[in-house]
Amino acid sequence: MLPVFSQYAGTALTPDQIRLINRLTKNITVLFDGDAAGLRASLRGIDLILEEGMNVRVCSFPDGEDPDSFAKKYNFEEITHYLESNSKDFIQFKASLLMEDAKNDPIKKADLIREIVVSISKVPDRIQREVYIQECSRIMDISEQVLVSTLAQLIQKDIVDAGKKQKQDQKSLEVVKEETTPNAARKIDVQYEIERKIIEILLLYGNTEDEFEDTLLRTNAEGEVEEYTEKRTYKVFERVYLSLQEDEVELANPLFRAIFNNIINYFRQAENFSTEQYLMQLPQELAQEVTDVLMEDEKVVLHNWEAQNIIVKEKTHSIGQYVNETILTLRWFLVDKIIEELKKDISSEPNADNTETLSLAMDYYKLIGSFSSKLGRVMSRYHI
Predict the structure, then answer these.
(1) What torsion do the CA atoms of 354, 352, 117, 370 make, to the nearest 10 degrees?
(2) Could you point out which of 221, 252, 317, 338 has its C-alpha 20 to 30 Å from the C-alpha of 149?
(3) Domain locations in the chain?
């Protein structure tokens, strides 16, 4: 696929815009005018593009030229040839540019080396990072070992910072079972509660049709790619099943897993769903659990909206939103478990190479950030 060319035009390229571009291509060339001071300032914003795993090249125009003036002077073939001939890999370009600034000043050189390593730390792919380390070692005349050590420290710091942020975010996303005694407290098996909630959703609303929002891309009248949502109708059991299949997730609780598989097959075969008829065909141990789920008056608290005087619709009026919240909460929990396991794999040995593990953990932290953002838009409180 051809690269996308992007020009900074007074406003910074936002993460949402970068993600839209990333859906179309992994290659992006950022265009700058010939103003050296402006170029150095703008380079800092490109780290956001690197974080998305994109291949970034930069191309600067001759002094006095900017992309607009250059495009008016030359035809398409000439412009394309110039861009292909003069664009350079961003990391190598930045390393060369910064070292030219540092010259023989050792203190300034040390600061600039840290700055370039910060950019390398944003690259998700470990092999790419290693190649950049080797190239920057050559350009900066510094040992690879020093650069690798600095890189590991930066990634470790990002992990710690992301962990702190995650703990703050999790305070706004707690799945709790309300107790009859107001001040009673007990440890909650979060995954058990979420999986039980999925079973309850299927039992109560599985055969109900509702609208669900899908996020899609389109090109607007100005030729720009934009994100939009489109409502599509699914039966609830179809949406739940497809969501778990997409994530390759099975319910961990054996009893819930058996009920899930049974009820999905039942919905596929039966035109209408009757609780009584469904219970009659179940094995006794499954029937007892289904009865318990239906009879128990549980509540899932995803956010304290009432304290903010926000009136939430009854769940029968927004089943699609309710289902999406539950699936997102399960995804959040499972990704968080993966992060905790990765933390255990981080070695405290001085010479240990934790780069790959740290990088993987950062990717999962970004995923949790995405879940948090989505839940922040749709989070509600439901009375079950």
Answers:
(1) 10
(2) 338
(3) 4-142, 190-378
